Amino acid sequence: FYCSLLHWVEGEILQSERTLQQAHQLGVLMAQLHQHSQQWDTPKNFSRPTYDRNRFNASLAKLYPAISQELISTENYAVLESAVNQVLEMIASLDHNQEVWGLIHADLHDGNYLSHGDELRPIDFARCGFGYYLYDVASTLQYLSPAIRSSFFKGYQTGQKLPENYIQIVEGFFVMAIIDVLSFHVSNPQEQQGVSDTVKDIAKEHIPLYLSGESFLFKKY
Predict the structure, then answer these.
(1) What does the alpha-carbon distance between residue 87 and residue 135 come to, in Å, rounded to a whole number?
(2) Is the pLDDT of residue 5 over 90?
(3) Which residue blocks in the chain are alpha helix, DSSP H?
(4) pLDDT (tens digit, 9 = 90+) per residue, 141-152?
């Protein structure tokens, strides 16, 4: 028999739209998680998913059957494919050391952290794995409005440094994080309409800007 031993974490899930202060707190929290990852000695035989080139190619491939299901058009799939190829080129140019790569939460969305006093506390590490810290950042930014994303970065920089071209890198990972989430939900009939609508949206609003080198992070939700 396999079981998980958990402990209670005090706090509550925020129900309202995130504020500038809460976005800053979330950035601080993520920086703390990444600091811990950089200093943590990985136990022997410790195994978790890896958010790398193979993972991203697999995520895109999982969406391909949605074409025959008429959930995704052939044209929009081609747009996704172009974006993934550009992200993979970007990844090939990145360093791969403990300053930029390590164990990440990979799913720090609105329901996976609790508010307790003046701090936020992370929960649900089911999707944690090894990946770029900026992919972790991008994954979380999906769930913050563009108006408060700069506050998140300010909080993050209280504990972690960002490279000069961090916005370009994060935007690539932002697109990739959305595709990864879509691939996770596409096999669920209850989520398929949402997947279809999201693909149409990002293929029109986000990816064309990304492919042309125009920033979208602070103006597109």
Answers:
(1) 11
(2) no
(3) 20-39, 53-63, 65-68, 74-92, 133-141, 146-156, 166-185, 192-205, 207-212
(4) 999 999 999 999
Q: Is the whole-model pTM more than 0.85?
A: yes
Rounded distance, CA 69 to CA 220, Å? 28
Side chain identity at 129, as an amino acid letter?
G
pLDDT tens per residue across span 64-120 = 999 999 999 999 999 999 999 999 999 999 999 999 999 999 999 999 999 998 899
Residue in this structure with the two tokens 């913050």, named with its chain if needed = 144
- Beta bridge mates, 116: 119
According to DSSP, the residues that pair with 12 across neighbouring strands are: 115
Question: Which whole-number Å values give the CA distances from 163 to 59, 134, 153, 196, in the listed order?
Answer: 27, 10, 12, 34
Nearest to 150 by CA among 15, 32, 18: 18
Asked whether 90 and 172 are in contact (CB, 8 A), the reply is yes
